Amino acid sequence: MSQTITLYVDGACKGNPGLGGWGAYIITESAEHKICGGEAETTNNRMELTAAIEGVLFCPMDAKLIIWTDSNYVKQGITEWIHGWKKKNWKDVKNPDLWKKLDAVCQGREIEWNWIKGHAGHAGNEMADQLANQGAEETAAQLKNGNAVETKKKAESDWLLNDPFGLDASDDEEESSEDEIYDAESTGAAGDAPINTWAEDALDEAVPADASRIPAKQASNAPIHPAVVITPATLDLQGPRQLILDTETTGFYFQDSDRIIEVGAIEMINRKLTGSSIHIYINPQKPVGESENIHGISDDFLKDKPLYAEIAEALYEYLKGAEIIAHNATFDMNFLNMEFTRAGFGALSNVCKVTDTLSMAKAKHPGQKNSLDALVRRYEIPQRDRTFHGALLDAEILSDVYLAMTGGQVSFDIDALTHSESAQGNASRQAVQIELPAIMPSEEELAEHENWVKQFEEKHGTPCLFAK
After folding, report:
1. Biased-composition ranges for Acidic residues (predicted)?
2. Which CATH architecture describes the domain 229-405?
């Protein structure tokens, strides 16, 4: 690769359909480029697609492209749905001309597609939005001066259209109807769009950014930032979720602008680890300073990691509703509450129960050291290399400590031995008769036992409890 180029692409539409524009903010290793255009009669989806096409075409073939879009429609369409569309020969797909062109211009290139929350203050996304609106304004001026061309002809030749409210994009469940759900052309004006067809972008514009703003159906399908590593569960368990969590930060004081740089959490249900976890590194936009001596995470390592605002939604959706278990939980929750509030989601503690294992340890072992390392030694938990603290590693260790402090692993489920006693299915416990095998010692083992008992009595001068 000769170079890496970052692109922010966006579209805007004054009415949907209506006058629209597209913009691409392109950052190379040596310069910044701003391109835009527009169309007299278009839709938001078409503008979003055109911005991506024109941005890619602007860049040399041998460059690696990192593309950021606030359109789920574009990001998921080009990375996921397009394969099914091709198999169906583009049947029932809206805007097939632009999708085919985007697919063609991406061939032979190395491209990393990313979603970013729109209108959240990110400089690159805001610039792309400004360019898209500029494209629409310039197109309007051309129309006013009589320089317009036929809009239908321009649309057929892949000129782009954009929607400033993101109403062309929405969450979807069936591949066969992505365009019907995501394209707001069928819904009329923004205010007419039914809520279950809104895009993430529309939600950002139309409702406050709080825990209840996204329906459960949409939240489950929300796009995940590529830097957010979520491991799926390997055990299908039912019950309240507990998340053993740890964070790493630039310092100790959330009030003094210290920031989170790493979050790790593992899921537990019914005292069993499900295998599900989440792990994220975050760019704090400030030097990590002396805290690097604790966690070993450098400024250079974090410089290409996402900002908290970019991963906040995925993290919030994973954590909310669960019981958060943390060691010195006040520290972690203060930072998480601060970061989520900055990102517009409100305090995490409002939607999660919190359990502090440090407080538990102090009550259980008063007057003793109760650091995580001290508890590991006290409960004889297998040692791990903790030269540096790591959020996910500490969460894994804390899960062992929590289980040990609260009674160890779970016992056998006696409910599995019950059966139905009535036609209505009411179950009751039954006496279980189990004949345990008796394993008798050999003559040699008996002789060794008697010899050991004799030695014990001679040494201590008292009868041994284990004598026959």
Report:
1. 169-183
2. 2-Layer Sandwich (3.30)
Residue whose tokens read 């019914």 = 270
Please choose, from the candidates 392, 388, 362, the residue with its C-alpha nearest in 3D space to the C-alpha of residue 374: 362
Cβ proximity of 26 and 61 under 8 Å = no
Identical fold between 4-216 and 229-405: yes
> Mean pLDDT across the chain, nearest whole number?
78
- Which helix (H) or strand (E) segment is 286 a member of? none
CA-wise closest residue to 24 among 102, 87, 88: 102
The neighbouring-strand residues paired with 281 are: 262
pTM: 0.44
pLDDT digits (tens, 9 = 90+) for 204-232: 333 333 333 233 333 344 457 888 999 99
Specify the amino acid at residue 354: V
User: Domain coordinates of the chain in residue numbers?
Assistant: 4-216, 229-405
Residue 10 in marked binding region? yes
**DSSP secondary structure letters along 270-319:** TTEEEEEEEEEE---SS--GGGHHHH---HHHHTTSPPHHHHHHHHHHHH
Superfamily of domain 4-216: Ribonuclease H-like superfamily/Ribonuclease H (3.30.420.10)
The yes-or-no verdict on residue 172 having pLDDT over 50 is no
User: Could you count the other beta carbons within 10 Å of the beta carbon of residue 466?
Assistant: 10
Q: CA–CA separation, 373 vs 386, rounded Å? A: 9
CA distances from 419 to 76, 238, 410, 434 (A): 48, 20, 22, 16
Rama region for 89: left / alpha / beta (φ>0; ψ in -120 to 50; rest): left
Q: Alpha helices of 207-296 — where are they, by DSSP H?
A: 216-220, 292-295
* Cis amide leading into 17 (omega within 30): yes
How many Cα atoms occupy the beta-carbon half-sphere of 279 within 13 Å? 14
Q: How many CB atoms lie within 10 A of CB 146?
A: 6
Collapse the DSSP code of 460 into the 3-class scheme (helix H, G, I; strand E, B; otherwise coil) and give the result: helix
Are residues 70 and 201 in contact, defined by beta-carbon separation less than 8 angstroms?
yes
* Contact between 61 and 106 (Cβ < 8 Å): no
What six digits make up the tokens of 210?
């709080």
Q: Is residue 70 a known part of a binding site?
A: yes
Please identify every residue annotated as catalytic: 389
In this prediction, residue 374 has a pLDDT band, given cuts at 50, 70 and 90, of very high
Model confidence band, residue 251 (pLDDT cutoffs 50, 70, 90): very high
> Mapped to the 3 state alphabet, what secondary structure does 334-369 carry?
HHHHHHHHHCCCCCHHHCCEEEEHHHHHHHHCCCCC
User: Contact 65/114 with Cβ under 8 angstroms?
Assistant: no
Q: Which residues pair with 241 in a beta bridge?
A: 269
Instruction: Tell me phi and psi for residue 312, to 5 degrees.
Output: -60, -45
